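Write out the 3D structure for:
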Amino acid sequence: MAHNNRKPKMLLYTLKDFQKQFPDDATCLEWLRNYLYPDGIFCEKCEAVTKHHRVKSRPSYSCDHCGHHVHPTAGTIFHKSPTALTTWFYAIYLMAQTRCGISAKQIQRETGVTYKTAWRMFKQIRSMLSDDKSGPIGGKNSKVEMDETYCGSRTKGTRGRGTDKTPVIGMVQRKGQVRAVVAADVKADTLNGLIREHVLPKSVVFNRYVPFL
């Protein structure tokens, strides 16, 4: 009898699929509710699992019996965030779908939020997706060296910064850990943003191109 050892084919989850599944904030909130309370919402006042209905004026659900409110975003990375849930979910989609990782700068460009908001989202999402060894490197008086390389198919013509290949930024803590990040470009603002994201404050950064601001 022949054995089928082939692995099951992975299903693609495209941007079109994401937009269809999460078209608005209400849908995102409903997904979060079902994820957190798969067996129904336990009402603390009724001390039982009861029926709840969505409160239109706020991101919460109210018990049909006593009116007690439950906020699915409480205690999550979305807690007290003024940013729309659709934006949060899209940022999660971007970070989960990109094999080499993305920067907060790219989240800013993709979602239209401020860099401060993008950085906060990036940090919160990464804390949920990554292990403890994936955080920023360096620290007080630690020396971190930074340089770039270019990846992609072999092409004729210009090399280095003039090429159309993808820039990859490497950051190495002396006698420590290494980080490699795909960058949109090698402009000063982009590189400084990557330093802020992946290198701890008070580190000594060695970069021959860009002064750390």
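The radius of gyration is 22 Å.
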